[in-house]
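Structure, all three chains, one model.
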Amino acid sequence: MPPSQDMLWYKDAVIYQVHVRTFCDSNADGIGDFRGLAQKLDYLQELGITAIWLMPFFPSPLRDDGYDIADYRSIHPSYGTLEDFQNFLKLAHQRNIRVLIEMVLNHTSDQHPWFHESRSSRDNPKRDWYVWSESDAKYRETRIIFLDTELSNWAWDPVSKQYYWHRFFSHQPDLNYDNPAVREEMWNIMKFWLEMGVDGFRLDAVPYLVEREGTNCENLPETHAIVKDLRARMDREFPGCMLLAEANQWPTDLRHYFGNGDEFHMAFHFPLMPRMFMGLKLEDRKPITEILQQTPSIPDACQWCLFLRNHDELTLEMVTDMERDYMYDEYARDKGMRLNMGIRRRLAPLLDNDRRRIELMNGMLMSMPGTPIIYYGDEIGMGDNVHLGDRNGVRTPMQWDGGWNGGFSTADPENLYAPPILNPVYGLQVVNVQSQKRFDHSLLSWMKRIIQVRKSMPVFGRGSMEFLYPANHRVLAYVRKLGNETILAVNNLASSAQAVELDLKSYKGNILIEMFGRNIFPRVGDLPYLLTLGPYQFYWFRLRKI
Amino acid sequence: MWQKFINDLMLASQEIISEVAKFLPRLLVMLVLVLVGYVIAYLLKSVLRSILRLTKFDKLSEHAGATQLLNKAALPSSTELLTRLVFWVAWIGFLLAGASVLGIGGMQEHVGHFFGFLPRLFAALFVFFFGLLAASFFSRAALLAAVNADLPSSRLIGITVRTVIIVFSVAMGFEELGLAEHTVLVAFAIVFGALMLGLALAFGLGGRDLARKYLERRFLHGENEEREDELSPL
Amino acid sequence: MTRRSLLPEESILSDDFLRELMNVGEVDILIGVPTYNDANTVGTVVQAVRAGLLQYFPRQRAVVINADGGSKDATRDLVRAASISDLHHPSGMTALRTLHCISTQYSGGVESGKALHTILAAADLLRARSCAVVAPDSIHIEPVWMKGLLDPLHNSHVDLVTPLYRRHKFDGLLVRNLIYPLVRALYGKRVREPNPTEFAFSSRLAVQFLNQHPWTQDAGRDGTEISLILTALEQDWPIAQVFLGEKSRTEHAPTDLVRAMRQTVGTIFWSLEQNFSAWSSRSGSSPLPTSGPEADVDLEPIRVNRKRLWEMFARGVAELEPVLKSILSPATLAELQRAAAKEEEFHFSDELWVQTAYEFAASFHQEVISRDHIVQALVPLYRGKAYTFLTENRDASGEQLEAGIEALCQTFEQKKPTLLELWEGTK
């Protein structure tokens, strides 16, 4: 029951990423749930987002924040029941908000009944559902992703006396996609949720589905074939639903996941995000323009997903060593802030809680080609707690007001799934929704405004992009175009005021209209167009020929 | 007869007395003129001297080599020379003016000539003096350039430059004075022509070698002796 | 457009150049490259500079500024092509930042002073924390030179870095025989290359020098590099020496000795006038903090036409007699003439050379004749000293060569009181 029939809705979307557990607790057990989430839909509607991406909410031992699923067809009891979920879905759709859920294809929890069966004996019918081997020497060329915790991609199973394959934690055995029964079962699970009404899936850890000797076991053609098959089935039975790929790869490798428009609808642009932070710190647009130049064009119906921060660490896998060292030194001087190959921090602390930089980064996020994702809490500038292990520091309770548990839960504070942020800068007394709602100049109000401006013009989501290369390298400028709508975005990456001369010859005669205040700027003439920008300032102009 | 003698004597003495009486004031005027002239000339001399000292005229003439020239001729320094000249010209002017007051026949004309000639004299001296300065400066420049360019007979080049410039300035000076214009011009033309011919011959004959050396260096480099240039001084 | 409204007298920076500087913005490191028709070598040099910046200073904001004297060849294009911009990405994938390489042509023909003036003015405007100048014809340049030149500025509170090179033993004769010993004796610091083509300096020194140097006067037009070093010496700025590598200028067009003499010795003589109180009070000399070998010498034998040197010296002494008479004391002149009489016995002793040099300096101060002529008259005499140097060191090892130079320096230092007496005119 999609809210609108536009098949390309995901191109215009503004997605809000949230974990049920962290958002709102309706039954005072210290853990957020679907009823709580449903209560906050009005807030999300007011914010202006058009889709919610829910992180895994399935029954799970929760050793990897729910990405270790023990039952694909049910809801974790802490978050409520299937009915609660269905009710939430209905309420969201009533507000024209679509719902995306997680689908972890690659692996299950070692607590999943399938794995229990599979490991019980070597001749169990489910033995083939996982990847077993006599030796841990197979697939040697495959890298280890969680360098900080895992030594090998193989783990010894003392029960059946064989090694099993796992690309992530050892408690997450990989499913065997060479087995047709596995593929069929996974589609049935997806169908289960689609029939319930979800609008799409984020498919987790896609590149790793299939293993082949002599390869690095990533991005294999067999993997692509599986995705194509899933997509074809979905298009046939549930048109208008969407698949989003999580594949932390270089753009040229990612490009294959779009196929000819017959694999994923969307994919995360992982390499861009660290380079936006890098460009800001260097006060140089080069990292950003360079990576976007290397980004291949994608089929018309496909779209990049852009984000500033998410529930994981700020990943630095897709940068050079020199760039990684720089990022660590500039953004994570404290070793505790580093995890695996990344930085586990939220947006506001990364940017020193500087409102101008937060606005600039959001301005770029919202104006570059792609669909933006906002990580919950970043719209009010929430902080993090690096002393909570793993990535839990960026998964603390949402701060609704300055009261009891920040309005997240009425449980005793010690019963919360994680302690809320309480420090004097980012604590719930200072940073919360209620106080920001009261003021027009708050970050929350500003976020509402920018989402509103973005949604007013389809060119943001669907337009082409062309860089201008003004000689001032501290200014990032680009033109977005769709039909006869043209938008010019100019971003000052520097902490000081800048003058820039833009070559707008091909837009001669146009009047520039600043999109937030709708003020008129001078007409474009023969001379280079001179603009001055304050520190970290950005402009969005609509070009109009009148 | 005595009477007539006495009368005549009286007349004569009266005449002498009246003549003397007529002459005495003139003499007095002349003496005053001479005295005032001396004072004025002296003042002029002092003023000029301080001006020249202020403008470091001695240094200038020293650079140009005029001082050494004067030294050689056992003359005082150029400042002294110039101030003395001015002093004498001014005083002589006053002396002549005084003499003319005496009303001695023909004197007036000479005095007029003298004053008419004065500016020309100064101009001529000026041209001559700076000619000397220039000759000294440029001959040294030419000499240094020739030596450093390893040209043969550099001294000759220096002397030639000096001679040409001096001859030229002397010619100009005489022209300024209006004396023997034609003679000077012809003399200058002869000297200049001779010099040029000499130079042309010298360069023609000597240049043969130079040209050969140049061509050799240009086309037969490699097994050449001219390695000194390849040592870099810096 | 009012592009040409600024006359060169009003500003050394053209409007177009200023516009480019605006786009570069504040930088940490500025590399200046003065050029004139250097298309054959400048490409290599700028690529090495770029590689050095990338390798050793990847995080610093840097700019390469080319001050060109009106090249007719592709020099300026070659410099500009070394920019790392986001426009041509295949070249600069490993660079974190944009590297601007900009080029400007100053008006009025080649003049090393104007080139350095442009570079210093740009450094001031861009607030560069450290600057280095590299010669466009240093074909042996390595990326590591950048580190060598700039590191002392960043790490050890030094304001000026002068180079040390591995050079042929007969290269840089004027430096070895006159410039180094003279500067050392006068200013009391052992700067091996007081007239460097590669050097680096801090922004503080740059701004100070920029504001005090008489750029528009005749004296300020040439020999500006040595002027900068002398200024640093005079005002006691901390200086360090860094060994860079091989340097050879022999591949290039022969240097005009008179011009070289004007630029260096002329400038030193002129500086004595300005800095009397500074140099007159110093005696002896102290070594500078130095990294790398102080004197690395290439001993490969080369053929030199010493006969010609001798001839030019002997002829110079003879022909220039009237000029030398006004510069030198009669005793010194007589000794020179005696020495110039016979080639076989000729030996230009250190004492005589030092006496000659000091008498020239004093005569320069007293302006006995035109100052330029004084400097020119020194050229043939230097040839005589060079002849002696070549003869003495024909088979010398590096150590022997060094010992000889050290002895000459000692003589210069010991005889410094003579210069002071001559200076005051008491002798």
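The first helix of chain A runs from residue 9 to 12.
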